[in-house]
Amino acid sequence: MFILTVEYGYAQDESQRKQLAKRLVQSASVKKGDVVIITGGTHVVPLMEDVAIEVQKAGGFANMWLQSDRVSRAILTEEPEEFLGQKNDFWLTWYGKANAVINLPNSEDYLKVVEGVPEARIAKSNGAAEDMSAKINALPMRMVSLVTPNPAAAKFVNVDLATLQEMTSKAINTDYSAIASRGARLKALFQTAKQVHVTNPDGTDFTFAMAPGRMIVVDDGIVTPEEAKSTVLFERWASLPTGSIRFSARSRRRAAKDLNQFASSTCSVSFGHSRILTVLSSSVA
Question: What is this structure's pTM?
Answer without folding.
Answer: 0.71
